[in-house]
Amino acid sequence: MERGRYIAFEGAEGCGKSTHAARLAAELGAVLTRETGGTAIGARIRAILHDTDVTDLTDRAEALLTAADRAQHLDEVVRPALAAGRHVVSDRSVHSTLAYQGHGRGLDVDDLRRINAWAIADTWPELVLFLDVDPAVQTARMRHRELDRFERESEAFHVRVRDGFATMAAADPAHWVTVDANGTLDDVSTAVRRAVHDRLGI
């Protein structure tokens, strides 16, 4: 039995990750999941992380909570599916911690990488699709949403996060593909599908 392929969508708030992850998973017949909150335990962790009433969570505690969610997620969902020959499409992955808690919050990215490599037992996504969206488009998409704790962060924070994703994509072109997410839903889906086929042959 061939092992499944692990694909993650990354990007700033409002880039369309959830929509395109669901579309791709349906086309591939893949397991669709997300971080944070891809397990029952993870959903409880996510509730803390995204709760706008949580105002005193320290940056290190936030990073450790995301790592705990990820450890449970990889053990419970991702690795069993891959071992069973199922493809996995995840709305966010370990790279979000490097972007949000590293580039966004200013924690040491190398420390975060070591902590999370241990949490995921070095099971990194085989392909990362970075949906890059212009700030003006992002703002327009977010305008009519009820914003969670991360979405309410400052514009400067979101710029740092986006720059963090772009930096990771540029540094690792063998595993990352940057997709222009400013276009129509169908245009972005076509670009995503092309990238997955070209890189993974599926």
**Fraction of residues in β-strands:** 5-15%
User: What is the number of domains?
Assistant: 1
CATH superfamily: P-loop containing nucleotide triphosphate hydrolases
Strands of the widest sheet, in order across it, are 2-3-1-4-5
- Rg from Cα: 16 Å
Task: Give a description of the structure.
Strands 2-3-1-4-5 form a five-stranded parallel beta sheet, sandwiched between helices. It has one domain (6-200): Rossmann fold, CATH 3.40.50. The chain contains eight helices and five strands; from the N terminus they run βαβααβααβααβα. It is globular, with a radius of gyration of 16 Å. It is of the alpha/beta class. The protein is 55% helix and 12% strand. Pfam families: Thymidylate_kin. Belongs to the thymidylate kinase family. It comes from freshwater metagenome.
What is the fold's blueprint, element by element?
Blueprint: E1 6-10, H1 17-28, E2 31-34, H2 40-50, H3 59-83, E3 88-91, H4 94-104, H5 109-119, E4 127-132, H6 135-142, H7 155-171, E5 176-180, H8 185-200
Parallel strand pairs: 1-3, 1-4, 2-3, 4-5
